[in-house]
């Protein structure tokens, strides 16, 4: 299982890994060094890729800037990904050989996994922890907040967006093309070309997505979450006044340091006289947390438990938080910042399950106006969420994903009885032991 250093992505992979272990598989995580501490399951074997100075510098930039916000943020995020993909392609073949790996399940954010799988002849399954990067021509790029528009005007706009996207992704595309050539795989233009040719799992259910073409290899399984009972903590057991609206606000683990945005949210809630809980995921200092005018300011909390009690959620538009809101029927105000969050916000608006305001344009007054509408018309938003909530409940989550993986592996085994496929002869300069820069725990 190959995953980048994003906390919410790793949580989904952990749950899927456990589901596969129950079905009799041995599971190994291959992660960037800085992601090792994000794994909570002690019985999962981890192989970490040694981080170079340039990669660690990129990680510090990502944490400082919140990643993916603005033109510079996008360029830094793409440069980080390009370095990580280059490192993965250098190191991963030796790991796969030495551990006799039979198949790869990879986050869509790491295109190198698709290249290595094709090079080694291994079954490969993609998992979209964020919005799927596969798309129809009528579907805007995930990092854009454009609406779905299949008219000729919309298609022309999307073609322009694709050209801009290629410009932003040029470093990553060069790395992909270079390693495809070195591995003897033929042309691979971009990360979409590195997706699994047989199965692409997605946490995004179809009724919350834009329309996708027939014949897609995308299999929506819904949120991949554990079935554990919500933890009872002093925060989840807090006394909430039932006569006043309760708003839960979180900007996730990557964006949780944004004090100024939290302050705008808190100021808006003050004008509405609502009860506000802010969960900053360790992003704020104790001094910053103490200065926020919210009733409760916490670092971490059982998010799903709090969302089930909230009247409205204010979120950065991260897919995992949004899916959690939809699963419990909670309307939301999204304040997208970077990555695929603008695309998630566009889907919130498309389906009428909440509001969305770009974080850079959000002011206390605009936030207050949006929250006021969500609270006053909550029943209408909840009604529109209902069919999405039902599909999430029936999608299957980790169980459905594990069953789909098993079907792919069974098919691959019937086609090729070898335990380990031989590497592509066109790339035999990558001999075992040449790039042995990894550690096991």
UniProtKB/TrEMBL annotation:
Keyword Transferase carried by entry: yes
SUPFAM superfamilies according to UniProt: UDP-Glycosyltransferase/glycogen phosphorylase
Swiss-Prot/TrEMBL keywords: Transferase
One example GO MF annotation: UDP-glycosyltransferase activity
CDD domains: GT1_Gtf-like
A Gene Ontology BP annotation from the UniProt entry: antibiotic biosynthetic process
Superkingdom, natural source: Bacteria
Keyword Transferase in record: yes
Pfam family, one: UDPGT
InterPro entries, A to Z: Glycosyltransferase_28 (IPR050426), UDP_glucos_trans (IPR002213)
Protein name as annotated: Zeaxanthin glucosyl transferase
